[in-house]
Amino acid sequence: MAFSDRKAFDKNILVKTIQTMNQHLPSKRLSLKDLLAMEKPGIKGKDNTFFVMEKKELDLVSGSLPRFLWGRLRLPLLIEMSPDFGNGAARIQGEAETEVVSKILGKQRPQGKQIIIYLPEVRELRRRLPTTTQYAFVTNIRDRDID
């Protein structure tokens, strides 16, 4: 196998591995407003499993966000894990999502629509919001050489 063929093969394996690791993610996230209106709030994953979201967590999230943003916040919050963010770092994207995470972790809200958090903060966020957060695994393979 030629070197360039090997690199393409390695990238394909990486892409398939990440897709497999993300099978639990929902095909569609729901707004906080919609989830609060549901009798049994939750979402269906791409693998057809149903994830129930605890009402007490939804109450904590709703109490951390102005009511006018409830329709914009999409749950579950995705904690994006990638080596691109640095060792032990994760990213959460979205204006409303960033607001909630900042309030729950007691951090100053950053400018922009994303926040980088580190392993101790990831653990704290997952401890406080186990049913309304999920890990997503991402990487940027376009600019990366795989040896």
What features would you describe in this structure?
With 147 residues, the chain is α+β, with helices and mostly antiparallel strands. The chain has one domain (3-137). Helices cover 37% and strands 20% of the residues.
Notable traits:
147 residues; alpha+beta; two-stranded antiparallel sheet; 8 strands; 20% strand; disordered C terminus
Strand order of the largest sheet: 7-6-5-8
Q: Would you tell me the structural class of the helices and strands?
A: alpha+beta
The largest sheet, given as strand count, sense and whether it forms a barrel, is: 4 strands, mixed
> Radius of gyration, Cα only, in angstroms?
17 Å
Number of strands: 8
Order of helices and strands: HEHEEHEEEHEHE
The dominant shape is globular
Helical content stands at 25-40%
Number of separate helices: 5
Q: Which whole number gives the mean pLDDT?
A: 87
Which stretches are low in confidence, meaning pLDDT under 50 for 5 or more residues running?
Answer: 143-147
Strand content: 15-25%
Query: Total domains, how many?
Result: 1
Distance separating the two termini: 14 Å
